[in-house]
Design brief:
heterodimer, A: about 375 residues, alpha+beta, Rossmann fold, OB fold (Dihydrolipoamide Acetyltransferase, E2P), 2 domains, 6-stranded mixed β-sheet, 5-stranded antiparallel β-sheet, 8 helices, about 20% helix, B: about 325 residues, mainly alpha, MetI-like fold, two-stranded antiparallel sheet, about 80% helix, disordered C terminus
């Protein structure tokens, strides 16, 4: 692996009264595609700028391959940045933009030409070397920015919401492109984004940030399937969240790695009793937060005829069906205060049965294994 | 037909401007050109007889010395002005109190030009504020001679024309994207390298404008060298005044004016040439790359490259 590992310890940064980062710690591994994901103002960009050297933290350590880089100015760090607005030099051609870092190093012209050609080829812009940035489209500018950031062969590439200025279709395309470049070059990518889809689709691991804190670090699968807090559950994908009280918990089996799996019965004011499995320790009377993803819920007009004890049933009426081709999203009203989001995939037309329409009386059901108990964050 | 009608209106619209320029710009200039080729009248004025006497009179060492001095004075005054105006414009563009700072730059214009020159005499004079201060702190016993020399002329000229340099520089720097400096640092440039390699080329237009706005008026300066300069800091403007009022040689005064016009026009032409050269260079570079790409890749390869990104090219174009 050509990349470096990046260690962030106890990093804090305040802008006046505003605390952008609170005691943040992260371990980013060599060659990883690591995403910092969070809403705007969560501190993700500040953290990236600290790694790049544009901001100095009030406290903490940033190490690249075990060396403290905080005393180094940006030009002495082995990291390069792809900026949100591309930051291409408008007075230079595409070729000279990409050659800029090499010109600074005063490499011979022949060497510069060889490498610039190579990197322009990597981002598929060979035919545009002589153009000025103003003559390029958004996607092409982004490619130039990537080539320019990579030509110095950094061990860490920092990407600050690089796709946010592109339209949806092009964003998808560039995302695949980024993934391809990452696979080819193999250096560490640290990718800042507020778009959970982007983060889920390309990252090896994701750190979800909120208000200067890292809430959870994990693979896309872990983040989506077992969110640590109600914020993560809500921010990553869509979900149904309810405050709940633990009624009773009983041990039902051993998990795959020897942990105790509990079947917990929850009391939810708006819904009644709901069953859910968890590996966390639960006491009766404990206040928790219950979540279930919309696509994990089955919806039907007839009462499902299963004998399994771990299935939760609820009865409701369709408030609003939203059809979007490959799936339909239903808002199902259970009680006056509780509306469930349910997503039905149109995988196989013949299975579908009668269409469920507005005001239909429906049954929704899900397995206790698909629900989650998450931590409630007081903020 | 419609186009023809529109064209006629165009002439009509341009009319007032054309009249304005003829009356207040071309006509006076024409008179000066005309006078410079006439014989001098006995008590001022001109005799309408063609003569090259005025231009012949220019060819003498005293005049040459004053011309050279004027060029040198203007050069240094402009250079110093730009060197001060650049950081001023930079900090104004970065500041949060832009309106206040802009106001501060403009405030001197509220006071008459001459009053401001006299203010400098009050500061720099032998009994001025500066000498008084130096006496108080015991730095000098009697006084230091600040006024009536070349340095005083340059100092006051810089002061007078600084706003003319700050304003165009501020407006271009304000439009400059400062994240480019971060990008340059990120790519390995030092602080100074980022400024010289990225910032300066991008604010070139503002620098050209600032140079013109200061060099042209300074080259024709009259009041400043007259009031704070000595006999050895006379500039062309002073010679013209002398020829008009004392020697009453109007053709000579006109001929010297023509020299000033020629030099300042040359300045403008140089700046225009520099601007054009930059544009040409860029175009040439582009052409060279296009040729090279065609030659080395051949139609096939370049087509492949284009095709794979064809979709986003068109998309981006539509958006912009």
């Amino acid at each position: 692996m050509k990349g470096s590992d990046v260690t962030i310890e106890r990093v804090s940064k305040a802008f006046g009264e505003f605390k952008a980062l609170k005691d943040v710690g992260l371990e980013i591994k060599k060659g990883e595609f690591f995403s910092l994901l969070g809403p705007s103002g969560c501190g993700k960009t500040t953290l990236l700028r600290i790694i790049a050297g544009f901001e100095t933290p009030d406290d903490g350590v940033v190490m690249i391959d075990g060396t403290d880089v905080l005393p180094l100015p940006p030009d002495k760090r082995h990291s390069n940045t792809v900026f949100q607005n591309y930051a291409l030099f408008p007075h230079l051609s595409v070729y000279e933009n990409v050659a800029f870092p090499l010109r600074i190093k005063k490499l011979p012209n022949a060497e510069i030409k060889k490498r610039v050609t190579e990197y322009l080829k990597l981002v598929e812009l060979e035919g545009h070397a002589g153009k000025k940035p103003s003559q390029l489209s958004g996607g092409q500018k982004q490619r130039v920015a990537i080539a320019r950031a990579l030509i110095n062969e950094p061990s860490v590439l920092l990407l600050d919401e690089p796709l946010s200025a592109l339209d949806a279709k092009l964003r998808q395309h560039m995302l695949i492109e980024l993934d391809r470049i990452h696979d080819k070059i193999g250096i560490t990518f640290i990718y800042v984004t507020h778009d959970q889809q982007e983060a889920l689709s390309v990252s090896d691991r994701i750190a979800v940030m909120c208000q200067g804190d890292v809430l959870q670090v994990g693979t896309p699968h872990e983040i989506y399937e077992s969110p640590a807090t109600d914020f993560v559950a809500r921010f990553i994908g869509e979900t149904n969240l309810f405050d709940a009280t633990v009624l009773n918990a009983e041990k039902i089996k051993e998990g795959p790695s020897g942990e105790t799996v509990l079947m917990v019965e929850l009391d939810i004011a708006e819904l009644g009793r709901v069953k859910v499995t968890t590996v966390d320790d639960m006491k009766s009377g404990q206040k928790v937060c219950f979540t279930i993803r919309p696509e994990k819920i089955a919806i039907s007009t007839e009462k499902p005829s299963t004998k399994r004890s771990d299935i939760n049933f609820l009865e409701g009426a369709v408030d609003e069906p939203i059809y979007s081709g490959f799936q339909t999203k239903f808002y199902v009203r259970i009680s006056d205060d509780a509306v469930f989001k349910v997503i039905k995939q149109h995988a196989n037309y013949s299975d579908e049965g009668p269409d469920i329409v507005w005001k239909d009386k429906v049954y929704i059901s899900w397995s206790a294994d698909d629900g989650y108990i998450v931590e409630t964050r007081k903020s | 037909m419609k186009d023809g009608a529109r064209r006629n209106y165009g002439v009509l619209y341009a009319g007032p401007t054309a009249l304005w320029f003829t009356l207040f710009f071309a006509a006076p200039l024409g008179i000066i050109v005309l006078y410079s080729f006439l014989k001098k009248g006995l008590y001022g004025g001109v005799e309408y007889v063609f003569s090259l006497e005025a231009y012949q009179a220019l060819i003498n060492p005293t005049f040459a010395a004053i011309t050279i001095r004027t060029v040198i004075t203007s050069f240094f005054a402009t250079l110093i002005t730009i060197c001060i105006a650049l950081p001023c414009g930079y900090f104004m563009a970065k500041s949060k109190n832009q309106t206040t700072l802009l106001l501060l730059v403009i405030i001197p214009f509220w006071t008459n030009f001459l009053i401001r020159v006299y203010a400098w005499i009050a500061i720099l004079g032998n009994n001025g504020f500066l000498n008084e201060f130096l006496r108080k702190i015991g730095f000098v016993k009697d006084y230091m001679q600040f006024l009536y020399n070349q340095e005083a002329v340059i100092l006051v000229l810089v002061y007078m024309y600084l706003p003319y340099a700050i304003l165009p520089l501020f407006s271009t720097i304000d439009k400059f994207d400062f994240s480019l400096l971060e990008a340059a640092r990120d790519l390995g440039a030092t602080k100074l390298g980022a400024i010289t390699k990225v910032m300066l080329p991008n604010i070139k237009a503002g620098i050209y404008a600032a140079v013109l706005f200061t060099f042209i008026p300074i080259f024709g300066a009259y009041a400043v060298p007259l009031l704070v300069g000595g006999k050895d800091s006379y500039m062309l403007g002073n010679v013209i005044a002398d020829q008009l009022t004392k020697t009453r040689n109007w053709p000579l005064a006109s001929a010297i004016s023509m020299v000033i016009t020629a030099v300042t026009t040359l300045g403008v032409l140089i700046m225009m040439f520099l601007n054009k050269r930059d544009a040409n260079r860029a175009a040439e570079e582009r052409r060279a790359f296009a040729d090279a790409a065609n030659a080395s890749l051949g139609g096939d390869a370049s087509l492949g490259g284009d095709a794979s990104i064809g979709s986003d090219v068109s998309m981006g174009d539509n958006k912009s």
